[in-house]
Amino acid sequence: MDPAQFLTAPRVTIVAGKGGVGKTTVALTMALAATKLGLSALLIEIEGKSAIAALFDRESIGYEETELSPADPALGRGRLTARALTPDDALMEYLREHNMKRISGRLASSGALDMVATATPGIRDVLILGKVKQLERSGAADVIIVDAPAAGHAISFLRSASGLLDAVNVGPIETQAREVMDLLSDPERCEVVLVTLPEETPVNEMVETAYSLEELVGVKLGPVVVNGCLGDPAPFDTDPADAAAEVDPHVSAAELSAADLVALRMTTTFIGGRAHLQAEQLERLERELPLPQLALPFRFTADMSLTDIGALADEWLDQVRLLVEPS
Amino acid sequence: MNLAELIDTKSVIVCCGSGGVGKTTTAAVLAIEAARAGRRAVVVTIDPARRLADALGLEGLTNEPAVIDGDWPGELAALMLDTEGTFNGLVTKYAGSPEQAERILSNRFYKNIAGAMSGTQEYMASEKLYELHADSGFDLIVVDTPPTRNALDFLEAPNRLARFLDHKLYRLVTAPTRGIVRVVNVAAQSFFRSVGKVVGGDVIADAIEFFAAFDGMEQGFKERARSVEQLLAAEDTAFVLVASPRADTVAEAMFFADELQKSKLAVRALIINRVHPHPADRDPVRDRERANELAGTTLGRQFEALADLGQISAGEEAHLRLLTERIGPAPVVRVPYLTVEVHDLASLTLVGDILMGRTT
User: Fold this and answer.
1) Does this model's pTM top 0.80?
2) What total number of domains does chain A contain?
3) Domain of residue A171, CATH code
4) A77/chain B closest Cα distance in angstroms
């Protein structure tokens, strides 16, 4: 298997994780990685508030497809597009396309969608996943990456279809829910990639989410992505003075002033301390969740740019290659 | 007023901010600090991480504050918001009779609202805050707010249900009858037939039954919503903004501060978690050069990390300057990225020491 096959094996990847773990960054990283392999990628936003539009100098991303970057055959680069899906738009579109235009008008004008949504929990999520399914069926892109809702909502988001079927047993919404369940339960069509940080609480929550998803939704879980990894703690276990003594004495860069020593010791204490905590959590994750891990490096920036995400995409591809082509 | 004074004098502290910035932990720390200062404090948490819940002695959802023993002169209690239970309590309180309450509580549409309607959690958090404030005798109530897409949901939530019940559509349903729905007017009937075609008739029947059962209770709910709103706007209530120094959460914190101001509410303090330590008086460019010259050695890796820290600190400082200008004169307190996990009373106390400036 090559990385392109790995990325397209199921066309739909749903990226899920708790707030603050960098879910959107990972979704964009995967989409960019796909385009770097020449594949077309469609990024689907659900919470319509992410910074992706700004990264690409776009005002906003709408329900209809927005091109983020065109295909570039010279560079072997695929086309990157995005959509921000809302349940209201998805329902209206569905009703229009299924000869229920009159109803869609009434629903819209009366503000009744709110009530319908309240009366039938999960309907919003099913409408969105239904639209994702339609995009998948129509082959909207080689790879479709869905940036799922944050926090504990991932489970209710993905369970929405089965929950809805308990309440609704007729009509177009029921059909939609069944088709969504077909999509979610088919490992050839759809998988979930869980994102976490290498910290205790996010790891705990991811492990719980993973088991709940398998048990309650029966969806295929792809590799887990650990975001913000500092890497090997070992270089920080050596005191900077000792590390300097290991270097060729003729190298002037290794001559440490008192101020250098203070700054380097602060660095080794902090980065080393955190890297050790992370290493423990990564090991624990491996023990508790038998899924392949992809570790994305921490980017030392307070403003994630497209260049940063491009670098993450390269790293992601390197790790996928290791995963699919074990040497 | 600094953070210590806020904790000493306010009767309500609301912690707000986007998801993943350490809001729940911060709320717990503020309550512990109040207990350390001799006050009777309670923290209302929403979906805390398991270890934190354990540290606070919370075994599951509970609507009654559980006392946490500790070495402080005051008193500390915590509760984990039970959204549905709180809502049920509210219905029982405003129902005209036990039968009416029962009819509502057993309705499927109601259960959907109580369990899953967006905004319900926010609404019940503020309701719980009001209840505790009205009758529990705590000096200080610290509330953690739910992670929402819109940071203002918490403020708007109390009025949302009132508006929901005010919708002309529901009056259409409930007006012609008292109690049991027999006659629904013609326009409503044809409308519900349309909706029924999309989602099925049972759903509609449940909704109609709910609004019929709810009849007469709107006034009580609306008045309650107004009281909660007044409490949030009271001089004794302080909003504390929690953020991390990254572009996205800073942007959300700015937005939140603006929106609070529009509602004539001020941010009384800003707490920035996870600030990277700043290597003082360094030239990150020179550190980077030395890292490159020493590439492949342990010292080189250490210089690289030092340069990396200089780089991220510069970005964080730029964000924090903007935010500090925006929030000022309210105090801005930084909590450095810690090299321990914060999940027990000892580490929560450590964060408290940092917040109160007793240590760095």
Assistant:
1) yes
2) 1
3) 3.40.50.300
4) 28
Residues from chain A contacting residue B343 (CB–CB below 8 Å): 200-201
A26, part of any domain: yes
Q: Is a pLDDT exceeding 90 seen at residue B265? A: no
Find chain B residues with C-beta within 8 A of A172's C-beta. 198
Residue A314 structural domain:
3-232+282-324
pLDDT at B200 over 80: no
Locate B345 and state its tokens: 């009373």
Tell me which long-range contacts B288-297 makes (C-beta under 8 A, separation of at least 24): B289/A253, B290/A253, B293/A251, B293/A253, B294/A247, B294/A251, B294/A253, B294/A254, B297/A243, B297/A246, B297/A247, B297/A254
Rounded distance between C-alpha atoms, residue A17 and residue A21, angstroms: 7
Q: Over the stretch B144-169, which tens digit does the pLDDT of each residue have?
A: 887 665 556 677 777 776 666 665 55
Task: Give strand ranges (E) for B52-181.
Answer: 66-68, 75-80, 140-144
With CB atoms and an 8 Å threshold, state whether A107 touches B194. Answer: yes
Q: What domains can be seen in chain B, in order of their start residue?
A: 3-355 (3.40.50.300)
CB contact under 8 A, B108 and A246: no
For A100-136, the pLDDT digits (tens) are 777 777 666 666 666 666 667 678 888 899 999 999 9
CB contact under 8 A, B339 and A18: no
Mention every residue, 6+ apart, whose C-beta is less than 8 A from residue A296: A26, A29, A225, A226, A227, A228, A229, A312, A315, A316
Nearest Cβ partner for B302 among A111, A169, A267: A267
